[in-house]
Amino acid sequence: MSPQTFIFIGRSGCGKGTQADLLQKYIKTQDPGREIFYLETGSRFRDFIKGDSLSSKLSLDISHRGDRQPDFLAVWMWAHLFVENLKGNEHVIIDGMPRSINEANVLDSAIRFYNRVPAYVVYLNVSRSWAEDRLQSRGRADDQHKDGIKRRLDWFETDVVPAVEHLRQHSEYRFFDINGEQPIEEIHQEIIKKIELQK
Fold it and tell me: d(Cα 2, Cα 5) in Å, to the nearest integer?
């Protein structure tokens, strides 16, 4: 199994992290000797806003409002990790980005730079109402305020959807539109089936 790149994207609460974790476990059974570089930007932002720096405090304010973090900060959150950690022979799993068309273009440049094409894009497609119910029920600290949830789902429509469409139309990506409202194991099996068909 040659090194592969997978990008998970979808509304907040759609199950990206769960499916990325299941894919990691599957890859380890198929290619046990190869490392996996897993990048999840949401948890990194949650850690970042706990800091005492000016940037952390400003980012915390944005998080409390439910607004999208600025592109420069989002790119910094992952780009330096690529530069410092990629060796070239590992699988790469990206969870939760790009979140804007600008970030998508930077990600494109990174994927080309590291010769990671074709990349697989897994779009976990769930309705807004499904995502809202999921966010309110999972109990995470940043999901406790209805106004914040609404704003996050709003900027998904205005900012992330154009990035999704960019990925969908990209000639160097293999785009999978997956019904994310299915049971977890059925989603996983559909993802694996579509990946296997592309080989």
Answer: 10
